[in-house]
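Tokens as discussed.
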């Protein structure tokens, strides 16, 4: 009976637990792949890509002729002179008309090819925006993973501190029995242990919050207990899939594409001031109650089928339109294009310099960071030695517990800083500086 109650209590705990037991452990590369595949973060880019694809595909149909049809039904009332009786009478006329009209542009400065080229450039620009958004997602995923790595190392270090304090407290108890130290010191160590345990709980809380943020970018349930392979247990090689381009690179590519789009847009607009040659064709017929057969007594209305057949007409022709005066609009367009072109070229030059500056800053940052890591490791070794010696001095009664705790805090801070510098080094190594 007690066993059944225990099983029931555990099942209730699992169901109501806000952080579910679903468990998975992922590498950084797997996290990046999941983030890129998360369509919720790419909804706008997918929609833009589909729109530009539609414009590009249907733009190829623009060389086809336009075909339209129309029909009409008219009723007219009025007085009419009868030529046989030379008298006026009220007359009502009903008429129908049917026609088909077609037009195709034969020449307009090769607008068809230039417009298709413009649509293709716009489509390529959408792909650049897609890649740029993917890089932003990769950056966010890496930021979350880096935050988790730091917390994992901090959690591991904090647990080591607690274990060390517990072991140190056992030694204190033995010394208290021997009368070499005060019993009050063991109480202070107990308080320190509990304080460190509170710090450990806070680290675990921050780790859970960062995991929730990571799940959002990966498209997982935010309550899923996703674990990242700790950096201290396995350092992943920085492969090409893990390389991240800085945003200035995509800003430069975007400016280059915009310049090409502006050039092509100008070519398309210029075709408006070129001669346009079109071919026009039409086919039509009609019926009217006013069409009568005067060769027959009482002049009956010619029947519907005969009228439709006899009134049939068709035609084909060509139309040439030559722009002569546009109130200076062409000159305005040319000058506007030259201003835009000059602006884009200047922006491209500035962005190229900005990208080079950014690359140089990152290289210098990485170089100095690696040197700082080396120095910080030496500091940690020295502080570890100082702490071990200080422990011995305390156990010999030569220094107070407060001094030992201060030395321990300094060692913890130095180790934590060394760990964070190492993670920052891995993060900077992921940035692609080869372009």
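Sequence:
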């Amino acid at each position: 009976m007690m066993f059944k109650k225990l099983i029931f209590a555990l099942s209730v705990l699992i169901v109501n637990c806000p952080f579910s037991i679903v468990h998975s452990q992922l590498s950084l590369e797997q996290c990046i792949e999941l983030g890129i595949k998360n369509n919720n973060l790419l909804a706008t880019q997918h929609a833009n890509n589909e729109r530009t694809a539609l414009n590009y595909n249907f733009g190829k149909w623009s060389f086809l002729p336009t075909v339209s049809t129309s029909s009409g039904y008219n009723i007219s009332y009025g007085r009419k002179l009868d030529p046989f009786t030379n008298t006026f009478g009220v007359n009502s006329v009903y008429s129908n008309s049917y026609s088909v009209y077609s037009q195709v542009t034969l020449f307009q400065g090769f607008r068809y090819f230039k417009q298709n080229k413009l649509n293709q450039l716009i489509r390529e620009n959408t792909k650049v925006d897609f890649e740029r958004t993917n890089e932003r997602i990769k950056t966010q995923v890496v930021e979350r993973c880096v935050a988790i790595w730091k917390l994992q190392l901090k959690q591991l270090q904090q647990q080591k501190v607690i274990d060390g304090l517990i072991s140190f407290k056992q030694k204190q108890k033995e010394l208290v029995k021997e009368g070499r130290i005060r019993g009050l010191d063991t109480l202070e160590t107990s308080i320190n242990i509990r304080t460190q345990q509170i710090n450990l709980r806070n680290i675990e809380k921050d780790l859970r919050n960062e995991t929730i943020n990571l799940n959002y970018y990966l498209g997982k349930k935010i309550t899923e207990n996703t674990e990242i392979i700790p950096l201290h247990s396995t350092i992943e090689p920085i492969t090409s899939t893990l390389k991240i381009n800085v945003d200035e690179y995509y800003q430069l590519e975007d400016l280059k594409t915009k310049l090409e789009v502006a050039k092509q847009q100008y070519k398309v607009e210029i075709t408006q001031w070129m001669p346009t040659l079109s071919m026009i064709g039409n086919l039509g017929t009609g019926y009217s109650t006013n069409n009568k057969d005067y060769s027959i007594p009482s002049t009956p209305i010619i029947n519907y089928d005969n009228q439709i057949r006899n009134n049939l007409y068709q035609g084909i022709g060509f139309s040439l339109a030559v722009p002569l005066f546009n109130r200076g609009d062409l000159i305005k367009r040319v000058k506007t294009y030259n201003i835009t072109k000059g602006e884009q070229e200047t922006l491209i030059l500035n962005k190229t310099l900005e990208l080079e500056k950014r690359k140089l800053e990152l290289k210098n940052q990485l170089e100095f960071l690696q040197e700082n890591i080396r120095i910080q490791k030496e500091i940690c070794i020295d502080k570890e030695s100082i702490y071990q010696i200080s422990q011995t001095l305390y156990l010999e009664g030569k220094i107070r517990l407060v001094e030992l705790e201060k030395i321990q805090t300094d060692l913890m801070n130095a180790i934590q800083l060394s760990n964070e510098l190492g993670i920052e080094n891995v993060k900077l190594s992921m940035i692609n500086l080869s372009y």
